[in-house]
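Most newcomers find our protein records easier to grasp once they have seen one. Read left to right, the backbone structure tokens trace the chain's path through space. Nothing more is needed to start thinking about how sequence determines fold. An example says more than a description, so a record of this kind follows:
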Amino acid sequence: MKKFFFALFVCLLSLATFAQNSDSAKLYYNKGVSEDSAKLYAVAEADFTKAISFNPNFTSAYIASGKTNLAMRRITEAQGDFNKAYELAPENKEVIAQLMTLTFNNRQFQKAIDLAQKCNDCENASRVLGMSYYNIEDFGKAEKFLKNALIENGKDAEAAYTLGRTYLELEEENNAIPQFENAVALEPTRGQWQYELGLIYYGQNDFKNSLKNFDLAASNGYFKNNDFYENYGFAQIYSGDADGGLKTLNIVMERKPNNKELFNNIAHAFYDTQKYQQALDYFTKILNLNPKDATTLYMAGLTFQKLGQVEKGKRICDHAIAMDPSLSRYRQKNEMPSGL
């Protein structure tokens, strides 16, 4: 009988302790909520921690603590709070949404996808899915969700830019251009985006728009490295400004003297734009560096023919073919050597 009463006493004592702890947890939780509303974040977080110490299964306290830590930019602590809340309440949409955003921002893309799929109606779920799929290189799914994200928020410049990048990966440049244009219209100071748009237009042989976006990129702080000057200079040449293009490319040639590849590209740009004397000058520069370059010698022969010196040009082409018999197929097909 004594054992029964002792067990009953212990049970009642446990219930009393639980009730007391529960009351204390609620007390500190309510204090924390009030302090958080007053933006006393450090004090609020301390009270939420006390509430959790009295009730380790207090989901709302973990959520409140997580939000307060976010307000203080304590990202690691906030993620710890929401992870604990997720363990206690794995179907809680607020918790899922918070963790979805945190994991995405931490570049944990597969985790972000898994969470977003549990919360399709959560704000930004389509955006997180689209951006995450892009980052794990699943471009087909990225396209679908990024399009949805832009339907939900047409002013999301980052989503528009990423959709543009997705179309480039899908080899759909014509679809990429409107997305890049939209992105730079929404955020007109993004020099990197403008430079990339300039490169897309360059690839489309739209050199006017290419130069326009290169200029915008430079005005918005894009660093004008050698690649920039090369792309800009060739865009000038192909748009009809041969002198301006050569002036720009001279900047690179001063930095990379006797660069055969650059000379070759300049020569072909002048050849393509029917500036044959300038083309010949650069084919000659290449041959001065390497007299055994049969392909360049062949191109020099073609250029002489374009300049009206047909017999001389044919002799030079014949000599190039003697050096490299594989070049004869270009004469048979009446075309320039491939890869140039």
Remarks:
- Residues 4-18 have pLDDT under 50 and may be disordered.
- The longest helix spans residues 2-37.
